[in-house]
Amino acid sequence: MIHIKQCTMKFLSRVVCITILASLFTGCDTNEARKAMVHFDRAFVPLMIYTFEGDIHQAKRSVFYVEFQWQKLKKQYQGYLPEEAESLARINSWLGDAYYAIDANNLLLAANQLEHVKYEFMELRQQYAIEYYLDGLFEFQDAIGLLTEAAEDEMLCLMEWEEYEHLLYKTIAEWQALRKEPLDTELYEFDEARARQLVSKQEAMEAVLYQFAETFSNANRRQLAIASQSLQPAFFEVLRLFGNFEASQTYFAQIY
């Protein structure tokens, strides 16, 4: 009986937590919480791209800006999400591991740790039903990552040709759907010029997808592997618009 009461209390506590968070993200004067997430990602996106591209110099400079934004966001999360202490601790640990890996010039390990950070935030937002445009982009990144990985593998990662075809056209459909989703330009701090850039980069990404699909139709695995190398760079051109690269490159100098 005591165990049942404890479980009930934990459940009610979580419901209250979710309700509080929902109110935070619907109130006019509490939109600052969502802005903090955006500000963190404006620091996080450059670091993630630098590690994937192998730019160790810029990755090391970007660490300071990411840590600054993380400390601000963590403080807010600790206030209205006490139930997620373990999740915040994991993020903190993965970021720390990424920093150490970058300092040791191990960008492969750093990229892996940053992926953990990305997924933890995505799961938190999904858990509390928080709509966040970047999550759609991150899911698409995973999809083209799988397309690239399979294309570079002689066994297509043990997929049948038809399975790969299904994955490819599913990814194209997901991109088209993502392009139709409205973007809160005020939240993501997009002026008209940046919004036009986004449309242009999205169109370029779609063109690369169609070109890749055309290569696939030739049924030449070697050509497919070569063509797959164009997917991630085109995607990063879209994602770059959500990062503050200027601050990432200069913030380190401001703390000394």
Describe this structure as you would to a colleague:
With 256 residues, the protein is mainly α. It folds into 2 domains: 32-130, Oxygen-evolving enhancer protein 3 (PsbQ), four-helix up-down bundle (Four Helix Bundle (Hemerythrin (Met), subunit A), Up-down Bundle); 133-241, Four Helix Bundle (Hemerythrin (Met), subunit A). The chain has helices at 2-24, 32-53, 56-80, 85-103, 107-127, 133-152, 161-180, 192-217, 221-228, 231-239, 245-254. The model is unreliable at 1-20 and 22-30 (pLDDT under 50).
Unreliable stretches, pLDDT < 50, 5 or more residues?
A: 1-20, 22-30
CATH class of the largest domain: Mainly Alpha
Radius of gyration (CA) equals 20 Å
Beta-strand percentage range: under 5%
Average pLDDT taken over every residue: 87
Which sequence of SSEs, written as H and E, runs from N to C? HHHHHHHHHHH
How many structural units, i.e. domains? 2
CATH topology annotation of the largest domain: Four Helix Bundle (Hemerythrin (Met), subunit A)
Proportion in helices: over 70%
Q: Output the number of helix runs.
A: 11
What summary fits the major beta sheet? none
Shape designation: globular
State the total count of DSSP E strands: 0
CATH A-level architecture of the largest domain:
Up-down Bundle
Derived from helix and strand composition plus strand pairing, the structural class reads mainly alpha
